[in-house]
Design a protein that fits this description.
Layout lengths: L2 H10 L20 H9 L11 H8 L7 H4 L7 E2 L5 E5 L4 H6 L6 H12 L8 E4 L13 H18 L3 E5 H9 L5 H4 L4 E3 L2 E6 L2 H6 L4 H14 L10
Parallel strand pairs: 2-3, 2-4, 4-6
Antiparallel strand pairs: 1-3, 5-6
The chain binds iron/sulfur cluster.
Length: 238
């Protein structure tokens, strides 16, 4: 199947005109704890160090900073344009990613590529990475100590790439990056200030494969992203 066919296939299940809405929060009411935590996570990085992604990767080395280092095959550092305006952050590498050392290359990765192409971009124009860089055994959720060990490298990557928009893919990435337990269905659909960028949570492609009707909401989120980046979304697939 050609790229244009696969893009068309993904878009076929989307509404002709997806409604783009950003839910607005009141600034007058006292903020709930979850909102306060989100604001704390949003703080711009202080003392941003100048370094390249290669230097960050070299610093990671053959990392054994957490127990995931023992079971992984490859570290999945990240992939794409080091100057990308748009960065996607998922949860953790899966089996295929662990074997090849690249993020999002299985079925979920193929869907993510179709979503990117539907926005009028290519995979090589964006940057894709995960909250943790080694595959958790049996694809379990990363644990707190693993996130604490690995996330500083993600923050350094984001601080160097300096994207305009970060898309947190799925509940785990969104809740971890925003330091909240708010449900993804409540978090999605709006932007949060995040380390000098704007972060928007949306559903993980793996979830969309299991729940195709949610593609409509994911597309609404990506349309918000496209608008933020000044992209013109093709009305028809190329
Ligand atoms: S998950 Fe991150 S911190 Fe843990 S071993 Fe892998 S690269 Fe190192």
């Amino acid at each position: 199947m050609s790229k244009s066919q696969t893009t068309q296939t993904w878009k076929r299940s989307l509404p002709a005109k997806a409604v783009v809405m950003a839910r607005k929060s009141s600034s007058k009411k006292a903020l709930p704890k979850s909102e306060l935590l989100i604001q704390a996570a949003a703080a711009p990085a202080a003392n941003r160090k100048s370094e390249t992604l290669d230097e960050i990767c070299a610093d990671l080395g053959a990392c054994q900073r957490c127990k995931l280092g023992k079971s992984r095959t490859n570290i999945v550092f990240g992939d794409g344009n080091p100057k990308a305006e748009l960065v996607f952050v998922g949860e953790a590498p899966g089996e295929n990613e662990d074997l090849e050392g690249r993020p999002f290359i299985g079925r979920a990765g193929q869907l993510l590529e179709k979503m990117i192409e539907a926005m009028g971009l290519s995979r090589s124009e964006v940057y894709i990475c995960n909250v943790v860089k080694c595959r958790p055994p049996e694809n379990r959720n990363p644990e707190t100590d693993e996130i604490e060990s690995c996330s500083p490298f993600l923050f350094r990557q984001l601080d160097q790439i300096q994207p305009k928009v970060v898309v947190a893919l799925g509940k785990f990435a969104a809740q971890t990056l925003l330091q909240t337990e708010t449900r993804i269905s409540e978090l999605r659909g709006k932007f949060y200030p995040y380390r000098g960028a704007k972060l928007i949570p949306t559903f993980h492609p793996a979830y969309l494969l299991r729940n195709p009707p949610s593609k409509r909401e994911a597309w609404e989120d990506l349309q918000l992203v496209a608008k933020e980046l000044g992209l013109e979304i093709p009305k028809k697939s190329p």
